[in-house]
Amino acid sequence: MSGHHHSHDHHHGHGNTHNRAFGIGIALNVVFVAVEAYFGWRADSLALLADAGHNLSDVLGLILAWLGMMVARVAPNDRYTYGRQRASILAALVNALILLAVMGGMAWEAVHRFTNPLPIQGDIVIAVAAAGVVINGITAWLFMAGSHGDLNIRGAFLHMAGDALVSLGVVVAGVIYLKTGWLWLDPLLSLVIALLILYATWGLFRQSLHLTFDGVPSSIDLGMVRTYLQERPGVADIHDLHIWAMSTAESALTVHLVMPGGHPGDDFLHDLAHELHDRFDIDHATVQIEAGDTDRRCRLETHIAN
Question: First-to-last CA distance in the chain?
Fold first, then answer.
């Protein structure tokens, strides 16, 4: 017997808001990347060019996340019974890979620039970076509401919020440069920016890669779920417990409950599905009831136990 519980409204109820946020955020950042790259070239500022490269990767990441979100909403069919929800996980993974590659290149260039630092136009750097604070701050605010329940949205929010802070740092560095004339400040700042973003992106990369291989979502404690199921009335044992992410916003569970007293009824399954959702944010629960007269366990369970 199987019990299913599907609760999508809490994730998809703000779909129009997310679409609007992606559209506005992409448009603003495309314009800003062009402006920042042009003036970075004019001012010969590696920090501005590094930030422009980072913002360009964020634009690509926003597009990927948006496409992933839309593809994930395609209705299930006979060929894809879960739909294409994993597209959002793959989008987050590709987004992280792009960001790691771009910032790695920028860090390498910054190291080389230390040997041949060039003067920059501090006033241009300050003006462009100040515009970046405003644009990236607005974009981050658009994603703030949905940043707690979706890896894609959280990645977009963190990137935009980080960009706003980076741009603020460029403003400060520009002011210091005008006062001191330190040529090494620009490559140092670009290197610090690249390393900070690499550090922040590594977490997104690890998490998205983990979900790609059907890892248990970090927000779910497998041990707590196992204990909860074992303590249900009438349950003598459990096995074949598996939890994985269907998308960056939804998770699924399958489990066999050994109940020697017999099937507990549909109300038990219905209540169990609700509890799994409310306690652990598990959206799709498939439960099989067994009497316990056989010992047919999942071949993977031995590996999990070890």
Answer: 29
